[in-house]
Design a protein that fits this description.
This protein is an alpha/beta fold. It has a single domain, classed as Rossmann fold, CATH 3.40.50. It is built from 3 helices and 10 strands. The strands form 2 sheets. Strands 5-4-3-6-7-8 form a 6-stranded mixed beta sheet, with helices on both faces. A 4-stranded antiparallel beta sheet has the order 1-2-10-9. The longest helix is centred in the N-terminal third of the chain and has 18 residues, at 17-34. It starts with a strand and ends with a strand.
């Protein structure tokens, strides 16, 4: 589909499922190459990253574990400066290698919050794997270790990304018209 409607907004195709899958393959190959023997914990940020995380994790061939956190910083189509921790970390992380799996980095406020929390909990090393990055919206200074694709600062849906909870189920990614 070239265009879709989600709730009251129109969106047009931005990234195809094929482009997304290629980016995920490249990221998984790099992680497999870089982290053998580390037994990383993949920490997935819900809800948006669940589809990306499933695709990425199925391609990981090194010994590893997976867990989930749920953070919220969006209201409608706008990011807020307030990060809410809806589901927290349940595992003991002291001395662990953690790979945060995030769907998109825009301002970076949510990710800075999570990275700081993980460092406070005593992780040995934090890596960040993000499918999408909006460099013109970014306000923080942390590094993205495994990046899929850079995109413009436009609101998007599909492949796990949503507009007020809707639109996550599309295999492609669409940008607002």
């Amino acid at each position: 589909m070239q265009t879709i409607k989600v709730k009251d907004k129109e969106f047009k195709l931005s990234l195809t499922a094929e482009e997304i899958n290629t980016a995920v393959d490249i990221m998984a190959n790099k992680i497999n190459r870089d982290l053998p023997g580390k037994n990383p914990l993949f920490l997935v940020v819900l809800n948006g990253a669940f589809i990306f995380a499933a695709d990425l994790y199925r391609r990981i061939t090194i010994p590893s574990e997976i867990s989930f956190v749920k953070l919220a910083s969006y209201s409608g189509t706008q990011t807020t400066s307030d990060v809410k921790e809806l589901i927290g970390v349940n595992e003991t992380l002291k001395g662990r290698t953690v790979v945060i799996v995030e769907d998109i980095i825009d301002t970076g406020i949510t990710m800075q919050y999570l990275i700081s929390k993980l460092e406070y909990l005593g992780v040995e090393k934090v890596y960040l794997a993000a499918l999408l990055f909006k460099p013109t919206a970014f306000r923080e200074s942390f590094r993205i270790d495994y990046l899929g694709l850079e995109i413009p600062n436009e609101f998007i849906v599909g492949y796990g990304l949503d507009y007020d909870g809707f639109g996550r189920n599309y295999p492609d990614i669409y940008k607002i018209v």
